[in-house]
What does this fold into?
Amino acid sequence: MFQFEYQTRVRYAETDQMGYVYYGNYAAFYEIARTEMLRSTGISYRELEEMGVMLPVTEMKCKYIKAARYDDLITIRTTIRKKPAVRIIFEYELFNEKGELLNTGETTLVFVDITKNKPTMPPSIFLEKMAKFFE
It folds into this structure.
């Protein structure tokens, strides 16, 4: 299992008129967290694309538990429970500064060969970087 935490502060532009995070912005929080999680392994999304693969989202789940508000410092805990193959599943838990659970979510992404536009296995270097988390 691979787990990573990333913190961000809720910006005014991410809130609605009531000062709550607009529901559609949770997808952006998920993207930030998984991008930084992958970067922490030593491989970025950009590098994966340069290796000839892209990672489109094929499914997203999102459960709203408690509102995040303007200027809250939120922690996004991202977990990969299963060793990545053609698909990679990210789970998310968002917490406020008090440690209260605000939101849970999940995204499924598929490795796609850029030139063939077909699902593919991840590059071997990516699998090598991930292997230590799934021994």
